[in-house]
Amino acid sequence: MPFTQIFGYRGGMRQSSLRVQLSIQMPARLELERADRWMQTYFDTTASGTGMVAGAEVPLSLQLTPAFALLGRVMAMYGILCDACNLPCTVPGQLERLVRRADRWDFSLLVPATNGLSPQVFEELVRLALQLIDVFMKTVPSLRAAEGLYKQLDLELLPRYRQNFSEGRANAFVAALAHKLGVPFSHLGMGIMQLGYGARAQTTHRSACRNDSAIGARACSDKFFTALLLRQTGLPAPLHELVSTEEQALKVANTFGWPVVIKPADRERGEGVTVSVDGPDALTKAFRTARNLSNRILVEKQVPGLCHRIFVAGGRLVFATGRQPKSVVGDGMKTIRELVDEANHKQVNIPPWRRKKIFPLDELAIACLSNAGLSPESIPRDGQRVVLRPIENTEWGGISEDATTRIHPENVRLALRAANVLGLSVAGVDLMTVDIARPWYENQAVIIEMNFKPYLSGDLKKDMLHPYIVGLVSEGGRIPIHAVIGTADLWAIARDMRGQLMKQGIRAHITGHALSESADGEQLHLTSPGLFMRCIALLRSPEVEALVVVVDSDEFLETGLPVDRLDSIHTAGEIGAGSGASLLKLLSQHLGVAT
């Protein structure tokens, strides 16, 4: 198993970082504009050379050199590669040192890194970014060259890095949301994230959090059982029967009346679902589709309307969307075939890891068109939506239309009640309704599915998801964190600070390099070695409401700080011009409130 590490905070950066030191030989000619065109045209970025900032020790004269400009592009590409590997990269890299030696440049970079992974992952991504910028400068940008590079990256080079971060795309999305709202984040391992510190921290996996009931998560995996629980609580659930043979399915369908929905009882993401099943032949095909995925098949009375995802977290609405099937929208001039070609062509210049599902014009799409009285050569009117799939699901994709401002309060209350029934703090409630702006009880709306750790990203705007983070952590996930440094009796000062915090009703812990104390003044026996790891251990604990750090070693100069921000720094006695001054400078770079 590769060595994994908890990375610290340095240089004022608001994400944990790794120091990477390399030496490069400058090419005879720098074609930076060509590299910029590559990244802008084929790597979905509009900013070039902005992936790096200069540290305080880098003079302006070095910031004006070609080497600095080149490294800026390298770090911009590093951010693109991190995104392709689903690794959080929320801040630019930082240049610490740049020295010219004959025909080479030696440099030291702080690069954003993800805790719990091997340093080798990020070092190799920096080298790969450097190689790619070199290729860009030597190659004229073209779609053909880009397609070859996409294939090499997506299929050969990047998969080995993607496997390092479990549930990476969703977790990187959560990390980006947290960073935007000023909430510190850390990867604990196995795709489990921590948002915030100590008593105000929350742990997440994709969109799920530690407050979610394991029983609720289990119940969500079975649509039949979920509906049973909802009905027993007086909430609207679909009328359906569990069957195991086609004969049973046909009997139930005849009893309910056509059309019906056929789906596996124990699959997610819309897998194996067939809607608008209107006769025995269609039922046979739909039953076999579902049977390929499960032995437990539901025949469900179809209700009219559109499926709406109501996402709730922490007792509040995050967003509501109407989940439209994969579709194109007419402009009154182009045929459906032309609209589909145009939509697919827009994906050509986007890296594979950022592309949406293709817009199909296959047999199933033509059947959907035929049901609407259309063909591929039809010209839909301006604004007319033309569906290419019967439903929205993970396999086919779809379009999410924001309904957050239109949803009726009674439908929000319904979603929150359903989440509470299952014991879920975070839930995706799928409500089938003809009008999300009307109360569910007025138009026979039903909850067709409850989703544990529902999908977060997709077409949604990030600001729509701010309530998700706010609902999970209080006060930005932050606790008071103070540092004490100097040659005086630091522990006496720290204990006095703990007493002052206790008077405010805040239970503060203290730690130094070899000793840690609880809020009650008792010694905490920790296996964690050193000041950095002792801080990390306490920041993981829900008992810690504040932390006083006794900086009684120079360990932070090697590890970086365990936190991205300090509330105060207290100096006592002499600091000194050596490691003491360097430590104070490091602490000051992350100071929020000076004293």
Short description, anyone?
This protein has 595 residues and is of the alpha+beta class.
Topology:
Elements: E1 17-25, H1 32-42, E2 52-54, H2 60-63, H3 66-84, E3 93-101, E4 104-112, H4 119-138, H5 143-157, H6 159-162, H7 168-180, E5 185-189, E6 192-195, E7 202-205, E8 208-209, H8 214-220, H9 223-232, E9 240-243, H10 246-256, E10 260-264, E11 274-277, H11 280-291, E12 297-301, E13 306-313, E14 316-325, E15 327-329, H12 336-345, H13 363-371, E16 385-387, E17 398-402, H14 409-422, E18 426-433, E19 446-451, H15 466-472, E20 481-486, H16 490-503, E21 508-511, E22 516-517, H17 530-539, E23 546-550, H18 556-559, E24 568-572, H19 579-589
Parallel strand pairs: 2-3, 20-23, 20-24, 21-23
Antiparallel strand pairs: 1-4, 3-4, 5-6, 6-7, 7-8, 9-12, 10-11, 10-12, 13-14, 13-18, 14-17, 15-16, 18-19, 21-22
List key phrases describing it.
single chain; 595 residues; alpha+beta; five-stranded mixed sheet; 34% helix
Helicity, in percent?
25-40%
Q: Cα distance, first to last residue?
A: 45 Å
Inertia-based shape: flat
**Biggest sheet strand line-up:** 17-14-13-18-19
Q: Structural class, from helix and strand content?
A: alpha+beta
Radius of gyration: 28 Å
**Overall number of strands:** 24
Largest sheet: 5 strands, antiparallel
Tally of contiguous helical segments:
19
Proportion of beta-strand residues:
15-25%
Low-confidence region ranges? none
Mean pLDDT, to the nearest integer, reads 91
